[in-house]
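Morning. Coffee machine broken again, so started the prediction first thing and wrote up yesterday's gels while waiting. Chain of 479 residues, entered below exactly as on the submission form.
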Amino acid sequence: MNETEHMTERAPVPDPNDNRRQVLYWRLLARLFDPEEQAALESASLAVVEDIGLPAALLDPGASVDSVVQRHPELAAEFEGLMTPEPEEDGRRDRAAEVRRAALASKVLLNVFASPPGTVTAGQLARWQSDAGWLERALGCRPGELRGGRGGQGDATGTGAGGGVSPTGTGSGAPTPDLSRLIPEIGPELGSIEAGLVQRMRLREVLADPRLASRLTPSMSLIEQLLRDKDNLSGVALANAKALIRRYVDQVAEVLRTQVEKASVGEIDRSVPPKRVFRNLDLDRTIWKNLTNWDPEEERLYVDRLYYRHTSRKTTPQRLIVVVDQSGSMVDSMVNCTILASIFAGLPKVEVHLIAYDTQALDLTPWAHDPFETLLRTKLGGGTDGTVAMALAQPKIAEPRNTVVVWISDFYEWRHTELFESMAAIHRSGAKFIPVGSVTSSGRGSVNPWFRAKFNNLGTPVISGHIKKLVLELKAFLT
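Came back before lunch.
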């Protein structure tokens, strides 16, 4: 055996996981220093992520960590303490686990340190704050702890000694980072990034100037920003923000009210005598019934009796319970449905209850008649846990046969099985359950496929699309 053959025989077999991890970190560095997409790195990273069974959404710069975890709740536990040191077993490295951590860590780091350029919206700020919270959790801290300047938790510290493996698998045999020294340096950096984002939210400057604020045209995107940022406004800026929200609410309410009024309101109730006023006079029937009194010589019709149209309609007291997901992805639906609920609240014999939820539920029934006041009490963003809303909705169903429950959400839920069983129970009780994926002005919508299939099997298909669809469904039940 010659020397070359001997060297080749003894050369260690390279682990493909090392290359995979390096691809992911090279993509992270490329994205941090240059927002332009590197096609080769993107395609290679996608292949790695799919090969190890992680969702492609981890590579989407526009997807927040919240949205990824919401659709893949099993990943939440992996993000917790992701960047804290893990002890080795018998001195061996789990290279496959390092690749997985590299993919998850890259997502958090890129979302936090590659802040959006230009003017920042309230929604972008809220998303960044949420992602920064996930970074803090990955470092073993509580959300907001680093930005609050309190440093990390005791269990988040590393050894600082040589021989360890980086918690994210960076480098072969590299020392574990000393998080006790690293965390205090990250905190001020996060605070600086957050301050910069707030400074670039120029909407506040516009709202503080009545002349500039009066030039703003109310739109759904603007209303979303105002609703997200309303707690940070005061004085003139807050007054102008409320005025813009009021203008938009009034505009949408006028359109929706017309759609509601176009449909009939119940069957004619002939047991109630018609109101004898001129506008109800049935001229054709009056002439027909009095034709026997026609005098051909005088060419006159003598009327013995006037006939009037029945306008009173049969109505049964109905209870409408509207449950709205107020997470960031459902802003359009939240605005439309609060306005729609207020319109139905103005109809005779319709009792409206309104509940908004994310991870907590809020009963907005006392303000259901005023969508403006309702929207001011909402808090957009966060995750979703429909079971907390169900706990408020179920006790309101007193007479199932006269109750309709409208549930508006994209149905990406944490406890999906438990929530669906509660919804199915409402349907079986005799109440009408209407699941709504979205009720937007544009007609766009997104629904969890698992829930969509379950609702189809239950016989209550999800309404998705334009708000007119929901109007027709509600009119058919309430009238």
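Residues 105 and 416 are 27 Å apart (CA to CA). Going to sketch it on the whiteboard this afternoon.
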